[in-house]
Each structure stands twice: as C-alpha cells, then as structure tokens.
Amino acid sequence: xxxxxxxxxxxxxDWLSYLEQLHPxxxxxxxxxxxxxxxRLPLSSGAVKIVVGGTNGKGSxxxxxxxILLAAGYRVGLYTSPHLISxxxxxxxxxEIVSDAEFVRYFNMVEHARQGVSLTxxxxxxxxxxxxxxxxxxxxxxxxxxxxxxxxxxxxxxxDCSIITSVDIxxxxxxxxxxxxxxxEKAHIFRSARPAICSDPAxxxxxxxxxxxxxxxxxxxxxxxxxxxxxxxxxxxxxxxRRNALAYPALRGANQLLNAAGALAALEALRDRLAVxxxxxxxxxxxxxxxxxxxxxxxxxxxxxDVAHNPHAAAVLExxxxxxxxxxxxxxxxxxxxxxxxxxxxxxxxxxxxxxFCAGLPGPRGLTAEQLAxxxxxxLAAEQKPGEPPVPVSAYPSVALALEAAHKLSKPDDxxxxxxxxLTVAGALQASGRSV
Length: 436
Fold this sequence. Notes:
The chain is of the alpha/beta class. The protein is built from 15 helices and 17 strands. It has 2 domains: 276 residues, UDP-N-acetylmuramoyl-L-alanine:D-glutamate ligase (3-Layer(aba) Sandwich); 137 residues, Protein-Tyrosine Phosphatase, Chain A, CATH 3.90.190. Helix 12 links the parallel strand 14 and strand 15. The longest helix has 15 residues.
C-alpha cells in the first residue's frame, strides 16, 4: 500500500512520522536514489561548501567553523546530525535553529520532486536542508556527514573543502571492521584538486592512497598544520599562516585543539575565498557550543554529559575525566545501542567508575537496562583484580530514573557522568529540564 504524504496543513511532527515510515530501512547506503531526486531540486548555490566527516570530532569541528565564520561576518548554514531533543537542531541559518514552518516548506518541495522514489529519513532531511540553504543567500555551508562518506547522502555535494577529523572503529556493519576499510569509505568526501584536511594524527594508508590517486590537495596534521600551547594559550601553524595567542576553545576535552587545528587548516586552505581575521578566530573559539560533548551542567554534584558511544570516544572521555579535579566518587549513567562495541567502551571507562546505573533505551536498537547491566557485569568481572570488591551495577528502565538514582546516592563533591548514546544524553537533558 502506498503511503499518503502529509496534507498541506500538516505539522512538522506529522512530516517526521511520514519520513520514518517512507523507506523500509532506516539506513540504506547508496547515492542513486538521492541523486535522482536531487536532480529535480533547485540545489545550486554559490556558497563555499565545507563537508566534515570522521568517526569522532565532526560536531565539534562544525561548531567551531560555524562560530568563527559567523564572527567574521559571513552568512552561514550549518547541517548536523543526529539531534539530541528536537529535529530542528539539525539545521541552523546564521546561528539560529530553523523553524518548523521552514522545514515543512522544504519537505513539501522534496515530496513534489520525489516522484515515487523511496528515501530514508536522513536522505529526505538532507535534500530538504540543501534546498533550504540554496534558497538562502549564504556565503558558507558547513555540512556534517551522517555515516561514513562514500555512500552518505551529504556526499552528493561537491565540497570546496573536505575535513576528516578522525578514523576509528564504528558502524562496522556498514563501513567495515578495520581502520583501513573505514578510512577508504570516509576518504570519498575528498574532491580532486580541492583542499582535503585530515586531522587524524595517524591516518590509515587507504585514506592516503585514495587522496593521492584522486589528486586532491591533502593537508595532514603534523606535516601541513599543527598546534602548540601552554597553560594560558595556544597557537596554530599551517603551511603559510600562523595564528598565535589563541584562547582555548570553549568546547572542553582533550581532542578539541586537534579539532580546532583542523578547522583552522580548512580556513587557511580557503583563505582566497573566505578572509577570516584573527579576532574572529578568537571570538569564534570562545563562542562555539555543542551540547553533549563533555558538557558540564551547573550545580552540585558535577554532572557531565558526553555522547561517547564508540571505543575511540570512550578513550577520550576517560582521559578528560582524568584531567578534572579530584572527586571522591564517580557514578556512570550509561545507556547504549545494541550494535555498538560495548565491551571496548567499558574497558576504557571501567577504571574511572565507582557505580554503574544502566539505563534502558527506546527503539529497536536500544538495549534494555537488564541486558546492558548483564554486559557491564560480565566485563567488570573479567577486568576485576583479585581481592577487589565488585563495582556495583544497577538497572533502571529509563535515563531519567537512572539519573535520579545516581543523584540520590551522590554527595556534592562527587560527579555523575552520563554517556553512551545520543539518546542517553538527550534523556538526561530532558530529565534536567534543559533544552539544546
């Protein structure tokens, strides 16, 4: 039976419900269908297009680019995914989250252009956002890749500059189970004879080989750009440009200078089209914000939110926790999707956690609290040293209840780390009465 599109008076939730049912699978890698529909949409734009991919660090890099470019006076469109609480978070025009009405307008446009072609939720959203950005007089588009690169819908865009932030193991069922396979997939956002920035300090050979065969202008961290710093400030060094006496980014975490350096390398590579003064860089780095990336909520005990859901991100999170001041106890509110490498994430984080509050997550991919608690208990038992008491593990049907239990047990000087999935962080934000 053919699914009827929403009416002319339908709301954004109506449209999102329609998008969720339109395609038989949530993820369907490939560009043929999305290119077919794109050919019938007005997507042409003179804006500079920066496409950002990578396993971790994409969102932070996009947020810094947006903030710096806005501070420099440019008109900027930002597209990211997934969202935490509201779908509207996925697109911003000149720093403002796009309204329901605007999304509905461009969903209608995609529907008329679709002509029966089946699109996934992400493909549909991407086309609507690209049409919206094309209709707006923008100077720059900053576009985050959803998954991988080669077959991701964002890859229909001919990037003026591409950035790969990091390459690590995630989404193995779609991208492969080695860094070499994943690097090959991600490298396909590069374009011939155009700047291609790689912030990963140890890029896989597959990425280097693809960039060489393609003939792109490859910028490598440690060879073409770098950073240095002390306790007060840091400096960026590119091929021809130095930016000194920079304040540390407002975004917290051990890898944010690496992300910032990649963003500044892209701006140097594009300097003939986008002049960015030093003050805009300073201001942008201080103003960039991104919920759920080592986000610390005000109050006591200290509550930290982080969307770390793969081994690389968990390793960074563990390092960030180690760099914080002393806290007597650290409690984890932990929720994960079933298709993630939970064991590897736990092995990174286990040394930091004194009590695990496992939260059930909704949806077909979400683990129940009991399923997750069993996995946590198993890994902790294998890691436990002789004579050590077992670390407590408890289960709660929702993030809100797990967070409430952690608050009840903690004292003002303790800390609670909420991590494991975007859904986990979203649940904590909603339970705390916060918006994005």
